[in-house]
Specification:
The complex is a heterodimer of chains A (117) and B (200). Chain A is built from 5 helices and 3 strands. Chain A is mainly α. Chain A has one domain. The longest helix of chain A has 18 residues. Chain A is globular and about 40 Å long. With 200 residues, chain B is mainly alpha-helical. Chain B contains 5 helices and 3 strands; from the N terminus they run H-H-E-H-H-E-E-H. In chain B, a hairpin with a 2-residue loop joins strand 2 and strand 3. Classes of the chains: A mainly alpha (117), B mainly alpha (200). At the A-B interface, helix 3 of A face helix 3 and helix 4 of B.
């Protein structure tokens, strides 16, 4: 059995301890920038290599819902990554705010559902 | 402090039992009802039975006292946590103004509220009081408040109720009213939970 290649992305270390607004034009450390500069390339590589990515949401000052929606919902809405691929590839960790995990999956599901219409 | 209080309660209880026993003994000596005579000897089995009953009463009352104290302590702990949650929610309310509020302040206060609420849910689970009511009432309201304050879902730019200006969120008057209403709902929810915790 082949071991699954698993990458961990800690938002507080890889990006910022103070995540910002939705769009780049709105201010620093936006959700859009996280998606473009960090998430997209790593997720595409993980999908191609059948790997997994664990996204650790702990350790920041807090997230705006718009930040999370843009960073993760945008993967489907803007970058056209299929929901099924993300389901296979992404895992989340949030001990400090466990409800964020459900929120993020909802944002991706909503973006997926809207694309179907 | 609690240990000393418990110790005094225990000593008080034991003293009360001894006083009752001694009083009963002397009352038995003094009372003489015509036609009723007391046996001068006691069957050892009856004596053992009396002592067993006596110690059972003491044991049961101590057990009930202990349970009552523990439950009172748990309720107090929950009330303290709920009070802190209320303070966190009120902080959001006091920082809200037309001039705007720093984005990091909003997200960190919302996180504070979320973490405190998660902690309360976990405590409710452990002591098995009220857990489902708080989760079903508070969590959706908290989510709605987060959406209102940090702008989800996406809206077109010309009707956007939130503007970003130099790291600050500036809310439209209508959005401020919506946020205030949601904060009031959260405060009501906490008050109801406090009331239920006290009367549980």
């Amino acid at each position: 059995m082949q071991a699954v290649n698993r990458t961990v992305i800690r938002i507080s270390e890889a990006y910022s301890k103070t995540p910002g607004p939705r769009y780049i034009i709105e201010g620093p450390f936006s959700g859009e920038k996280l998606r473009q500069e960090i998430l997209l390339s790593r997720i595409v590589s993980a999908i191609e290599g059948n790997g997994k990515i664990l996204i650790d949401l702990d350790g920041t000052a807090g997230y705006g819902t718009s930040f999370l929606e843009e960073a993760f919902g945008g993967l489907l809405r803007v970058n056209n990554i299929p929901y099924e691929q993300l389901e296979k590839t992404l895992e989340f960790k949030s001990d400090e705010e466990p409800y964020l995990i459900q929120d993020v999956w909802e944002y991706m599901k909503d973006a997926h559902d809207k694309k179907q219409i | 402090m609690l240990m000393t209080k418990n110790k005094y309660n225990l000593i008080g209880n034991i003293a009360l039992y001894i006083v009752c026993l001694v009083t009963g003994f002397f009352v038995g000596k003094l009372v003489s009802i015509p036609g009723v005579s007391l046996a001068k000897e006691i069957n050892p089995l009856h004596g053992i039975s009396i002592f067993c009953s006596f110690f059972c009463v003491i044991f049961v009352s101590l057990l009930l006292d202990k349970h009552k104290e523990a439950s009172k302590g748990q309720r107090q702990l929950m009330l303290n946590q709920l009070e802190s949650l209320l303070e966190n929610v009120e902080q959001l309310s006091t920082r809200l103004c037309k001039e705007g509020i720093e984005f990091v302040v909003v997200t960190s206060l919302l996180k504070k509220v979320g973490k405190r609420a998660t902690n309360i849910v976990n405590l409710f689970k452990r002591i098995d009081i009220n857990k489902n009511d708080f989760v079903t009432r508070f969590c959706p309201l908290h989510k709605e408040l987060r959406d209102l304050m940090t702008n989800t879902p996406i809206v077109s730019e010309h009707e956007n109720p939130i503007q970003f200006k130099k790291g600050h969120l500036v809310f439209s008057e209508e959005r401020i009213r919506e946020i205030e209403a949601k904060i009031e709902e959260l405060k009501d929810c906490i008050s109801i939970t406090q009331l239920e915790t006290v009367s549980n």
